[in-house]
Amino acid sequence: GQEKEEHPMRLLVAEDERDLNRLLQKVQALNEGGLETKQLVEAIKSYISENIYYDLSRETIAEQLKYHPDHLSRVFKKATGETLINYIQNEKIKTAIYLFKETNLSVSQVADRLGYTNFSYFSQLFKQKTGYTVREYKRKYLNKTDGDNAADLLR
Questions:
Q1: CA 97 from centre of chain
Q2: What pLDDT shows up at residue 6?
Q3: Is 85 exposed, middle or buried (0-12, 13-18, 19+ CB in 10 A)?
Q4: pTM above 0.90, yes or no
Q5: DSSP label at 115?
Q6: Rounded to 5 degrees, what are φ and ψ at 68?
Q7: Which among 44, 104, 115, 137 could bridge 55 via Cys, Cβ 3.0 to 4.6 Å?
Q8: In contact, 148 and 101? CB cutoff 8 Å
Q9: Cβ(130)–Cβ(154) under 8 Å?
Protein backbone atom coordinates (compact mmCIF):
# COMPACT_ATOMS: atom_id res chain seq x y z
CA GLY A 1 0.00 0.00 0.00
CA GLN A 2 1.05 3.45 -0.88
CA GLU A 3 1.00 5.88 2.09
CA LYS A 4 -0.56 9.23 1.44
CA GLU A 5 1.66 12.09 2.62
CA GLU A 6 -0.10 14.52 4.95
CA HIS A 7 -0.20 18.09 3.66
CA PRO A 8 2.24 20.32 5.64
CA MET A 9 -0.45 22.94 6.32
CA ARG A 10 -2.75 20.24 7.74
CA LEU A 11 -0.04 19.36 10.29
CA LEU A 12 0.22 23.02 11.34
CA VAL A 13 -3.53 23.27 11.79
CA ALA A 14 -3.55 20.06 13.86
CA GLU A 15 -0.81 21.44 16.10
CA ASP A 16 -2.73 24.70 16.48
CA GLU A 17 -5.84 22.73 17.45
CA ARG A 18 -3.87 20.76 20.02
CA ASP A 19 -2.41 23.99 21.44
CA LEU A 20 -5.87 25.54 21.49
CA ASN A 21 -7.28 22.50 23.29
CA ARG A 22 -4.47 22.61 25.83
CA LEU A 23 -5.14 26.31 26.39
CA LEU A 24 -8.87 25.67 26.79
CA GLN A 25 -8.16 22.93 29.33
CA LYS A 26 -5.94 25.33 31.29
CA VAL A 27 -8.64 28.02 31.25
CA GLN A 28 -11.23 25.48 32.42
CA ALA A 29 -8.91 24.32 35.21
CA LEU A 30 -8.39 27.93 36.30
CA ASN A 31 -12.11 28.60 36.26
CA GLU A 32 -12.80 25.47 38.31
CA GLY A 33 -10.08 26.46 40.75
CA GLY A 34 -10.96 30.12 40.74
CA LEU A 35 -13.41 32.11 42.79
CA GLU A 36 -15.64 29.22 43.82
CA THR A 37 -12.65 27.34 45.22
CA LYS A 38 -11.37 30.38 47.12
CA GLN A 39 -14.79 30.99 48.62
CA LEU A 40 -15.24 27.33 49.49
CA VAL A 41 -11.83 27.09 51.17
CA GLU A 42 -12.57 30.27 53.14
CA ALA A 43 -15.96 28.85 54.15
CA ILE A 44 -14.29 25.60 55.30
CA LYS A 45 -11.63 27.44 57.32
CA SER A 46 -14.21 29.75 58.81
CA TYR A 47 -16.49 26.82 59.78
CA ILE A 48 -13.54 25.04 61.43
CA SER A 49 -12.53 28.18 63.31
CA GLU A 50 -16.08 28.80 64.56
CA ASN A 51 -16.55 25.16 65.59
CA ILE A 52 -13.07 24.33 66.86
CA TYR A 53 -14.49 23.14 70.21
CA TYR A 54 -16.63 20.48 68.55
CA ASP A 55 -15.85 17.13 67.05
CA LEU A 56 -14.99 18.12 63.48
CA SER A 57 -14.87 15.68 60.58
CA ARG A 58 -14.95 16.07 56.82
CA GLU A 59 -18.46 14.63 56.94
CA THR A 60 -19.82 17.18 59.40
CA ILE A 61 -18.22 20.07 57.52
CA ALA A 62 -19.45 18.75 54.17
CA GLU A 63 -22.96 18.33 55.56
CA GLN A 64 -22.99 21.91 56.87
CA LEU A 65 -21.64 23.37 53.62
CA LYS A 66 -23.83 21.12 51.44
CA TYR A 67 -21.00 19.41 49.54
CA HIS A 68 -19.87 15.80 49.20
CA PRO A 69 -17.03 15.04 51.69
CA ASP A 70 -14.75 13.76 48.90
CA HIS A 71 -15.27 16.91 46.82
CA LEU A 72 -14.59 19.10 49.85
CA SER A 73 -11.38 17.24 50.67
CA ARG A 74 -10.18 17.31 47.06
CA VAL A 75 -10.83 21.03 46.61
CA PHE A 76 -9.22 21.87 49.97
CA LYS A 77 -6.11 19.77 49.29
CA LYS A 78 -5.71 21.17 45.77
CA ALA A 79 -6.09 24.77 46.94
CA THR A 80 -4.02 24.62 50.13
CA GLY A 81 -1.61 21.74 49.57
CA GLU A 82 -2.68 20.18 52.86
CA THR A 83 -5.34 17.65 53.70
CA LEU A 84 -8.50 18.78 55.42
CA ILE A 85 -7.89 16.38 58.32
CA ASN A 86 -4.36 17.72 58.80
CA TYR A 87 -5.65 21.30 58.77
CA ILE A 88 -8.31 20.47 61.40
CA GLN A 89 -5.71 18.75 63.61
CA ASN A 90 -3.29 21.68 63.31
CA GLU A 91 -6.01 24.18 64.21
CA LYS A 92 -7.02 22.07 67.23
CA ILE A 93 -3.41 21.81 68.42
CA LYS A 94 -2.94 25.60 68.00
CA THR A 95 -6.07 26.07 70.10
CA ALA A 96 -4.77 23.60 72.71
CA ILE A 97 -1.52 25.59 72.92
CA TYR A 98 -3.53 28.78 73.36
CA LEU A 99 -5.60 27.15 76.13
CA PHE A 100 -2.47 25.86 77.90
CA LYS A 101 -1.07 29.39 77.88
CA GLU A 102 -4.21 31.33 78.76
CA THR A 103 -6.03 29.02 81.18
CA ASN A 104 -5.29 26.64 84.02
CA LEU A 105 -7.19 23.78 82.39
CA SER A 106 -5.67 20.33 82.71
CA VAL A 107 -4.56 18.37 79.66
CA SER A 108 -7.63 16.14 79.84
CA GLN A 109 -9.91 19.19 80.16
CA VAL A 110 -8.29 20.79 77.09
CA ALA A 111 -8.58 17.53 75.14
CA ASP A 112 -12.21 17.20 76.16
CA ARG A 113 -12.96 20.83 75.33
CA LEU A 114 -11.55 20.31 71.81
CA GLY A 115 -13.81 17.31 71.22
CA TYR A 116 -11.21 14.60 71.83
CA THR A 117 -12.84 11.91 73.93
CA ASN A 118 -9.74 9.74 73.69
CA PHE A 119 -7.17 11.45 75.91
CA SER A 120 -4.22 9.31 74.80
CA TYR A 121 -5.02 10.01 71.12
CA PHE A 122 -4.93 13.74 71.88
CA SER A 123 -1.58 13.36 73.65
CA GLN A 124 -0.11 11.39 70.73
CA LEU A 125 -1.40 13.96 68.26
CA PHE A 126 0.07 16.82 70.30
CA LYS A 127 3.48 15.11 70.34
CA GLN A 128 3.26 14.30 66.62
CA LYS A 129 2.39 17.89 65.68
CA THR A 130 4.71 19.80 68.01
CA GLY A 131 7.53 17.36 68.71
CA TYR A 132 6.86 17.69 72.45
CA THR A 133 4.73 15.85 74.95
CA VAL A 134 2.31 18.20 76.69
CA ARG A 135 4.42 18.06 79.84
CA GLU A 136 7.62 18.90 77.90
CA TYR A 137 5.82 21.70 76.10
CA LYS A 138 4.52 23.22 79.31
CA ARG A 139 7.93 22.99 80.96
CA LYS A 140 9.73 24.49 77.97
CA TYR A 141 7.31 27.20 76.88
CA LEU A 142 4.93 28.15 79.64
CA ASN A 143 7.64 29.68 81.78
CA LYS A 144 8.38 32.10 78.94
CA THR A 145 6.65 35.45 78.71
CA ASP A 146 7.37 36.36 75.09
CA GLY A 147 4.29 34.49 73.85
CA ASP A 148 5.45 32.11 71.13
CA ASN A 149 3.37 31.85 68.06
CA ALA A 150 1.48 28.53 68.20
CA ALA A 151 1.80 28.11 64.43
CA ASP A 152 5.61 28.22 64.65
CA LEU A 153 5.56 25.17 66.89
CA LEU A 154 3.77 22.94 64.45
CA ARG A 155 6.05 20.68 62.48
A1: 19
A2: 60
A3: middle
A4: no
A5: T
A6: -75, 140
A7: 115
A8: no
A9: yes
